[in-house]
Amino acid sequence: MLRYSLVLALAWTAFPALAQEDKEVLCGHQADIVAAIAQARLDRVSERKLPEALAETATWPENYNVMIPVLAPHLYGLKRKDIRNTDWRGATFEQCMGADLSAAQGN
């Protein structure tokens, strides 16, 4: 989970424009993306085809798609059984809400 935390931290600092939004909205969209990536992994969507597959069902604003290549390698590096047994949306939202986003915002 530490590696996952580092990936999320990278996502916030790499995309400071996203961090300007309300924290709850940002965390909700990020959690949706992680859950969609996890489901795509379970559905055996190849990592190469992931952006196109997620674009078809995206519930988040288009500018959040820049996070997909940052977050996907972590989930694609795990075994499917490990993905299946984790609530990725809940874990991501909780971790995001507990994080200090002021560093990503330049404060």
Describe the 3D structure.
This protein is mainly alpha-helical and 107 residues long. The protein has one domain (2-11, 22-98). It has eight helices and no strands. Helix 3 crosses helix 5 (68-76) and helix 3 runs antiparallel to helix 7. The protein starts with a helix and ends with a helix. The relative contact order is 0.22.
Helix content: 55-70%
Number of strands: 0
Q: Treating each run of at least 4 consecutive H or I residues as one helix, how many helices? A: 8
Poorly predicted segments: none
Number of domains: 1
Using the alpha-carbon principal axes, give the shape: globular
Rg from C-alpha positions?
13 Å
Major β-sheet profile? none
Question: What distance separates the N and C termini?
Answer: 26 Å
What is the residue-averaged pLDDT? 82
- What is the string of helix and strand elements? HHHHHHHH
Structural class call reads mainly alpha
Report the sheet-strand fraction: under 5%
Describe this structure in a few short sentences.
The chain is mainly alpha-helical and 107 residues long. It has one domain (2-11, 22-98).
Question: Could you name the key traits of this structure?
Answer:
single chain; 107 residues; mainly alpha; globular
How do the strands and helices of this protein lay out in sequence?
Layout: H1 2-14, H2 16-19, H3 23-42, H4 50-57, H5 68-76, H6 80-84, H7 88-98, H8 102-105
Helix pairs in contact: 3-5, 3-7
